């Protein structure tokens, strides 16, 4: 069979493509005049592919990081080998080898084509991104597509987005360091980036800035370009603020010394950021940049700036069912994350209707922002993402004039992440929620993300605000969010999302839906921060939304509960602990941890003998379905940890809320032990420490960060204690930095226990069960 026929079919397909006819690509055969491509292909010969000569190589002139490489075979049977390593005789094997070599410096789409009948070709596509770390992954299906389709598909590939986004964040750190070196303040850095991106949209500035040699002229041209672009919106607030916000460039000492410094910054921003924004139009790149600046140089905590991660702004749109007819208000707009996500969803729902899309941007996006520099960033960000600036208001959302203006829009969806209170004089977060609700049409949804403390308060001004909210609006749902959601902004605050129905009084006997949304699948990495590295978010989000929309009660995840203003508005207070997850291994782990600690810290450690045998040979089932609930206060004496003052040279253990070394973290103090008898210690505060539970048999002192538990009805022994420790540990999910396990809360909380025929706690069962476990003979 003649391989040339296959090559002719492929050559004809791409030669007749519009991109080729318009000279937008470079089509080469066997070899390349690009020295880097030629060098990389030489490596293919080392793996049995003589000369490293693919049948076709395609380069895009405007997308030089992306290559297409094609390998042809005449026979269908020579498409792919069973082992996948016969690079000479099989099309797929060979093209994957080329891809592996070229992907060291390029993103590569490799195409394997076999057959000589154009209607019965065997075709496979594989995409391998730059760096060589990832394997080629199948894409596009089994037909040859247009060059435009390949390019667009490559740009929309989720892996490509993640790669580009990772590179963008890496660059944000480098750029931040560069701007820091130039003595540009944190509050001005994002403005400079946004201004550069806007100015580059002005044709005259874009064409002239690279050749400008006078700094004053460059700055004037820059400011004129930004002003011209932003003033296109009929918005007096923008006109007033643009010149003020960017005026620092006129007098900046370092920048004004050498015109090339600013020119090079603008050129770099164009190459690194502008291309990303153009490829991913509705992704909030500037929001991410600002988050990165706060990560690397956060001096703005005192301003209460907490920027919402993009996956949460998108989640808000799903919760509110945003569509093309929505009118969205954010009365604490910040840099526009919520408004951009809403605009994205609304535009998509308009399905290409240009008239409707224009109406959305002109009449259906409403934002209010108080801070000068953030307002300019907001305007800039909206402009970069396709406008929506007409109804942005500079000032306080409590200002009477602004309220009158905003009410005219009859907003039917409200979003906000209000300024987090950092000073006694600051407004309460719930005041901003009430303000947002007051500006919405009756029956509209208001969704706010606020500190968990707003949901927990049972007294003071916050209680008054909770009462006011329920007297005028319906609390439909509350979701407890991940503890480190704002890690990338260097903000350590536990938060929840509250969903209200505007201007419909909270009904009597109404059950609010509470969700435990603590795990969004995101993880932390030292250099790149918190992100969805394992691609879990989309499936988690779908499950969350399904349960919310159906109001499903799922053990360990959600519950419906009647609440009033004086109650806690969080799932942790009401969700039933799932005891069915208990396994024998959980109890075994508690036994081994305790014995390891005892072996290390006991004064008689040299005489301690650890044996793997159990205390008895029988086996026992837990049968948790037969257990009954008891209040902690009915089972335990509970007190706050105490310590003796340092008064003599002997050391004693100091137990705190640590997860290490039985709660001690290896800490000793020179003091007489306050506790001489055996007890259980439970951490009562902090994200990590709260709920850390251990059995203490050695004399110890304790910090106030732990609660001390002993049994009311009998003496605690190691067997019963380790059984109870395992159960109490199940409750850890209920607590975090914003919601501690206080004495009052613990006394009223409930624990499930095995029961006797008379209905009391079956301590004998607990003791006997632990005795069946490995190592229990050493207790």
From TrEMBL:
InterPro entries: DNA_Adenine_Mtase, DNA_methylase_A-5, Restrct_endonuc_typeI_TRD, SAM-dependent_MTases_sf. GO terms for molecular function: DNA binding; N-methyltransferase activity; site-specific DNA-methyltransferase (adenine-specific) activity. It comes from the Bacteria. Residues 284-515 form the DNA methylase adenine-specific domain. Residues 627-771 form the Type I restriction modification DNA specificity domain. The keyword Ligase does not apply. It is an enzyme of class 2 (transferase). Its EC number is 2.1.1.72. It holds the Pfam family N6_Mtase. Keywords: Methyltransferase, Restriction system, S-adenosyl-L-methionine, Transferase. It catalyses: a 2'-deoxyadenosine in DNA + S-adenosyl-L-methionine = an N(6)-methyl-2'-deoxyadenosine in DNA + S-adenosyl-L-homocysteine + H(+). SUPFAM superfamilies: DNA methylase specificity domain (SSF116734), S-adenosyl-L-methionine-dependent methyltransferases (SSF53335). GO terms for biological process: DNA restriction-modification system; methylation. PANTHER family: SITE-SPECIFIC DNA-METHYLTRANSFERASE (ADENINE-SPECIFIC), SLR6095 PROTEIN. Belongs to the N(4)/N(6)-methyltransferase family. This is site-specific DNA-methyltransferase (adenine-specific). It comes from Candidatus Endomicrobium sp. MdMp-027.
């Amino acid at each position: 069979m003649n391989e040339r026929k296959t090559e002719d079919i492929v050559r004809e397909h791409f030669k007749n493509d519009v991109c080729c006819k318009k000279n937008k690509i470079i089509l080469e055969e066997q070899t390349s005049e690009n020295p880097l491509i030629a060098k990389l292909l030489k490596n293919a010969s080392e793996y049995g592919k003589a000369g490293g000569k693919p049948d076709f190589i395609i380069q895009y002139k405007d997308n030089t990081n992306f290559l297409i490489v094609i390998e042809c075979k005449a026979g269908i049977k020579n498409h792919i080998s069973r082992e996948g390593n016969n690079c000479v005789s099989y099309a797929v094997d060979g093209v994957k080898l080329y891809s592996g070599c070229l992907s060291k410096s390029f993103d590569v789409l490799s195409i394997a084509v076999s057959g000589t009948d154009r209607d019965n070709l065997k075709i496979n596509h594989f995409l391998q991104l730059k760096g060589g770390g990832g394997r080629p992954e199948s894409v596009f299906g089994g037909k040859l597509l247009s060059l435009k389709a390949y390019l667009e598909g490559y740009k929309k590939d989720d892996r490509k987005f993640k790669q580009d986004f990772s590179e963008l964040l890496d660059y944000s750190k480098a750029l931040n360091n560069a701007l820091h070196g130039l003595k540009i303040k944190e509050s001005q850095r994002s403005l400079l980036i946004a201004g550069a991106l806007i100015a580059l949209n002005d044709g005259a500035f874009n064409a002239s800035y690279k050749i400008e040699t006078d700094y004053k002229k460059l700055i004037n041209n820059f400011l004129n370009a930004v002003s011209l672009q932003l003033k296109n919106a009929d918005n007096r607030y923008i006109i007033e603020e643009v010149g003020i916000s960017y005026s620092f460039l006129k007098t900046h000492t370092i920048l004004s010394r050498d015109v090339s410094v600013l020119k090079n910054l603008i050129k770099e921003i164009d190459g690194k950021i502008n291309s990303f924004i153009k490829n991913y139009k509705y992704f909030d790149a500037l929001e991410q940049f600002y988050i990165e600046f706060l990560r690397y140089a956060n001096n703005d905590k005192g301003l209460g700036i907490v920027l919402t991660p993009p996956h949460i702004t998108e989640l808000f749109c799903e919760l509110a069912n945003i569509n093309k007819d929505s009118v969205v208000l954010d009365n604490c707009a910040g840099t526009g994350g919520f408004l951009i996500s809403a605009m994205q969803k609304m535009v998509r729902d308009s399905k290409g209707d240009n008239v409707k899309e224009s109406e959305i941007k002109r009449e259906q996006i409403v934002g209010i922002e108080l801070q000068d520099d953030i307002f300019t960033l907001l305007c800039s960000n909206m402009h970069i993402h396709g406008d929506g600036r007409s109804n942005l208001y500079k000032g306080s959302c409590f200002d009477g004039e602004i309220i009158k203006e905003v009410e005219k829009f009859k907003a039917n969806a409200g979003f906000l992440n209000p300024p987090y209170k950092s000073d006694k004089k600051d407004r309460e977060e719930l005041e901003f929620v009430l303000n947002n609700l007051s500006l919405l049409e009756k029956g509209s949804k208001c969704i706010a993300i606020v500190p968990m403390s707003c949901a927990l308060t049972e007294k003071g001004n916050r209680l008054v605000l909770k009462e006011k909210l329920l007297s005028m609006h319906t609390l439909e749902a509350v979701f407890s969010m991940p503890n480190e959601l704002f890690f990338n902004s260097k903000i350590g605050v536990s938060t929840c999302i509250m969903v209200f129905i505007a201007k419909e009084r909270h009904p009597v006997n109404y059950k609010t839906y509470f969700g435990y949304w603590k795990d969004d699948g995101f993880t932390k990495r030292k250099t790149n921060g918190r992100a969805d590295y394992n691609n879990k978010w989309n499936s988690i989000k779908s499950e969350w939304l399904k349960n919310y929309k159906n109001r499903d009660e799922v053990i360990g995840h959600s519950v419906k509960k009647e609440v009033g203003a004086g109650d806690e508005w969080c799932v942790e207070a009401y969700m039933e602990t799932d005891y069915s997850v208990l396994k024998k291994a959980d109890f075994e782990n508690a036994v081994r941890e305790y014995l390891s600690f005892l072996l290390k810290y006991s004064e008689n450690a040299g005489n301690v003998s650890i044996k793997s045998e159990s205390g008895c040979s029988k086996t026992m089932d837990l049968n948790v379905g037969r257990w009954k609930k008891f209040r902690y206060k009915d089972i335990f004496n509970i007190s706050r940890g105490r310590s003796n003052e340092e008064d003599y040279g002997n050391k004693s253990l100091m137990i705190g809320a640590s997860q290490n070394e039985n709660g001690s973290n290896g800490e000793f103090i020179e003091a007489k032990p306050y506790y001489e008898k055996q007890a259980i210690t439970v951490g009562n505060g902090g994200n990590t420490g709260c709920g850390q539970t251990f059995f203490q048999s050695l004399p110890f002192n304790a910090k106030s960060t732990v609660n001390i538990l002993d049994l009311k009805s009998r003496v605690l022994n190691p067997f019963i204690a380790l059984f109870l420790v395992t159960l109490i540990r199940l409750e850890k999910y209920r607590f975090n930095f914003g919601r501690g396990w206080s004495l009052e809360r613990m006394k009223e909380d409930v624990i499930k226990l095995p029961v006797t025929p008379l209905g009391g706690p079956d301590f004998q069962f607990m003791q006997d069960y632990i005795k069946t476990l490995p190592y229990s003979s050493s207790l």
